[in-house]
Amino acid sequence: MKAVPSAPSNLSTFSLTLNDAAQGTTPKLCAGFDDNTSSFTTLTAGDSLSTTTARRYTTTTTIDTNSVTNAYNGASGTLTAAINASADGAITFTTGNDTATNSSLVVSANPDYHSVNSAYPSDFYQVFTAKITKNLSAYTVGVNAQRLEHSATGNTNLVYIVKDDITATPTTTIGTVAEGTAGTYRYISGIPYYNTGSPTVTVTGTTVANFTGQAYQDTSSPHEVDPGTNQESTSGNVIATTDFTYAQADGASSMLTGGIPNTDTGVSSAYTLGALTVSLTGSSVASVQTIKARSKNANGTGSYSETSTKIQVFTQTPSGLNDEAGGITVSDDLGATYDDDAVRIAGFGSLSGDTPALFDSSNANYYTDSAWSGAVTVAGTNEAITRFSTIKHFTTDLSSGYLPAGPDLETGRDGGEAQYYTLAFRRTNVANFTVTLTGTVSGFYIAAPGTQIDSTSGLNGWLDASLTYAGSGIPGSNTGAGGNGSNGCAFTSGDRIQDGVAYSAQSFTLTLGAENMSNATGNNVLIRIKLNSGDSVTALSIS
């Protein structure tokens, strides 16, 4: 007698899985999640919600399990879709065809097993194919567990549907940016910039709405602070992208339990992060820039929030027109005795007018005694500003909204008032020299303190480069002192530096006439540049 085959596999041998893809970016279950599973064994905080048996969902969709195919017994007993330990659809099997849908339970086939496997006799075993299907909207927010249960032959494993209560990416509002570690400033035109000593800024009071729901994003950078918008036509980043972990961003009221983010952080009200320290970038940066921040949740990455605070960094080796950088070159082959470059000189900021009386016309060696250096006071003066290799008329209040806080260059420096940039160079055996200029100025004056021009000039010892030299003798309108009748120093009419004309690398020969730098105190010639609003100089050299 032929033996009857054993019964087909019963329900407890099948694996139930979720067909629908998990929603979100590397979601994991938050601490303190809402547990709706009743007596079912449930997940624990920190579990992944991207597996085939535990997934996170946010949008309205139908959640399907896989179909358990040809399970025994399909001729007797009751099959139930158990959700959170409660029946959500049941079908009682008979020897007939019991395919049907009852609530969340779908039985799609109920055949004689012989039709599936001919090795089995007819009318001996009956099997079923079934699944659970339910719309997400019918689940409760939090963790939901479900399985198929057969009253006689056992149950499948549990699968978990985590319905999240946040569907948007987080909203970040960056907090107050303040100086952390100052380091050692670099001063250019009396304006401080972060330079050496590992400077930092601190961001406090940043808030994040919808940081977590039932799930959090599994990432080492849930919050980041990034370079923002460059100001004043600068380029280069004052910070590198700086990532913060959940632990680093944790606020005074902790959002963590056992290192795992709590559920619904920032949902009822925005969550305030702790103080965040951001290092300023190292070498080769000369920039004014804001910073911005954004955060991540299980839905993805939110939009940036940008601060209005402007951070000034100058770690680059100064070049060009930067006061102390030697950016105003003087040709080595001009004259004799010296081969150094021009320097900006301090002490003229309190002197008014285009051609002020020199504060020591007879004894001062301006080149050596008044060279501009360090934190020169410019607030409240008429000093023009060198800003990123450009000499300009500058009226910005750097004392507020800038880091490091600088001078107030707005108060007392109305846009309608002229500003001045005064420099000195030294040579001997020079009566004529050529200035090459790129930019626009409103006046250009020279002086040779200690020479007869101090007396012949009608401009307190200065000569005007917008006027042509009279052709012979010592320039100056004071003929009684030996002047030639004109305060002009432009060698020819084509050498005049005129008010409001935009020049591009144009050269102008200027003259001391019958005088010579050999007779000047310290062999100095001074140059005083007048700049009105909108004026600037981007290149200047002497040959």
Care to give the gist of this entry?
By secondary structure, the chain is mainly β. It has three helices and 42 strands. It folds into three domains: about 150 residues, no CATH class; about 140 residues; about 210 residues, no CATH class.
Write the layout of secondary structure elements.
Blueprint: E1 27-29, E2 54-57, E3 62-64, E4 68-71, E5 78-83, E6 86-92, E7 100-102, E8 105-109, E9 128-135, E10 142-150, E11 154-155, E12 159-163, E13 171-173, E14 176-179, E15 184-188, E16 191-196, E17 200-204, E18 207-209, E19 215-217, E20 223-230, E21 242-244, H1 246-249, E22 256-257, E23 260-261, E24 271-272, E25 276-279, E26 286-297, E27 300-301, E28 305-306, E29 310-314, E30 329-330, E31 343-344, H2 366-369, E32 385-386, E33 391-392, E34 402-403, E35 419-426, E36 432-440, E37 443-447, H3 453-456, E38 462-468, E39 488-490, E40 503-511, E41 524-531, E42 536-542
Parallel strand pairs: 2-12, 29-34, 30-42, 38-39
Antiparallel strand pairs: 1-19, 3-9, 4-9, 5-6, 5-10, 7-8, 8-9, 10-11, 10-12, 13-18, 14-17, 15-16, 17-25, 18-24, 20-21, 20-26, 22-23, 26-27, 26-28, 26-29, 31-35, 32-33, 33-42, 35-41, 36-40, 36-42, 37-38, 37-41
